[in-house]
Amino acid sequence: MIDGLVAGKLLGDPEQRVGKGDSRFMVAKVRAQAGDGENLIVNVIAFDDAPCAALLGLRDGDSVALAGSLTPKAWTDKQGNVKPALDLVAHRVLSVYPD
Question: Are 8 and 63 in contact (CB under 8 A)?
Answer without folding.
Answer: yes
